[in-house]
User: Fold this.
Amino acid sequence: MAKIDKNGNWIDREGRLVPPDKVKEIDKIQDAAVEEMVAIAKVLEAQMLEARQRIVARYDQALEDIAKAGKVTREKWKGNSTLRSYSGDQVAERAVSDRIVLDSRLKMAKTLLVEWICDNLEGASANIATFITQAFSVNSQGRINTRKILELLQYDIRDAKWTKAMGLIKDSIKIVGSSTYYRFFERIQTSTGETMRPIALDFASIRETIVEAG
Assistant:
């Protein structure tokens, strides 16, 4: 139902009172549609919250029972883990992803890497030099891509400046929290054979699909 005052006037986004006969039909159609869809979404949100709570509790209980059966301590199960049905047709995964930030030492690392590029203009790989430049570039919000910065640590380059720069990057890493994700899969038969289909819990990723019988 639209926001209406005690006299029946509609309230617009600016807080102004508009008599119902002055509200355009297109606005009434939008108002009704949005209200209905938001109501559906809120019910779904509550259901998903309850479902997540049940999944987390059941997953934790399963790990606890497995630890007892295997006579290992609970600490062994911290972090990422995978549970499989006996047939292997269904899988449940838990993935823990740390949220990290890089402190001011990153700027010193960038300075050293720029010097390293200048010192090795002929010997340095053009691809590495380009990757360094891209790694330290910022987006429209002025933020760097942390993942690209961390990918620099994978290069095995034996040079004093490079090594010092990598040390500064490692020291700059600060874990500010973590997120836990639960993913589920089931084996299905398609025209090209069997595959493990991810069960979509992200509303945007849900698609209507036809699963072909084997």
Remarks:
- Residues 102 and 173 are 5 Å apart (CA to CA).
